[in-house]
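Reply to dn_fold:

You asked what the input looked like. This is it:
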Amino acid sequence: MERRPRSFYVLAAFFGLFVLFLYGPILTIGILSFQGPGGGLTFPMRGVSLHWFRDLFQEQAVGDIWGAFRRSFGLGLMVMVTTVVISVMAGLAFRKRFHGSAVLFYAAITSLVIPSILISLGVGLIFNQLGLKIHWATSGFGSQLTWTLPFGLLIMFAVFNRFDRSYEEAARDQGATAWQTIRHVVLPIIAPSLIGVALFGFTLSYDEFARTLLTSGSYNTLPLEIFGMTTNVTTPVIYALGTLTTLFSFGIIAAFLLTVWIIGRRRARLGSDAGKGV
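and this is what came back:
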């Protein structure tokens, strides 16, 4: 049996440390959230129970947790839909060169390299100067789009650069209009990529802190609410909240991945049926 080189074990150990560093804090919070009523914020644990999860659902829990969750969830959906629609439209538009396309492209992705807190400050100042009310659904929505849209655009540009236009030509030869071609040919083909853009848009919005800090107005999103709780909550209830939000995030990711898997299975089945028909 061939002996593995020493570099393999070094890389394996490094990868193990990386995974521990990445998921260790999440695991620690999850463990501490199951402490008994007398538990604190550090080890050792004092009993094991679901006390802090029950406390989280009681009215006397500190902060507007569930209101913040609803706002983050609604804002995430708004940002997700907008990011997908604009990214697809931009991807279709940028397949052809037009005057100023390069400048427009770099202007769109510049926000990725600007510090997030400056984006939040700038958007807040613009709304103040225009006399508009700062609110999570308006200024917060706009500031988060500066974070999600560049990712969506980059993904769609890569997708359409590899897109085989012969499918569109075949649809037009069959008499399909431009909209019918997009709806029945282009969108089904790029559906897995659209799901990826949607996942990026929702998750980046759901946990965004800095770009929402100065643009959410008087109502906090969930990341802002959790940050506020860290200054005045001294019980494991905050760990229980972290555990539930982490499980929710993993659930969202699993739902998107399941959708991609279902689409892939459906395509494979349709391709198999088409092959048998031929």
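Residues 237-277 form the longest helix (41 residues).
Hope that clears it up.
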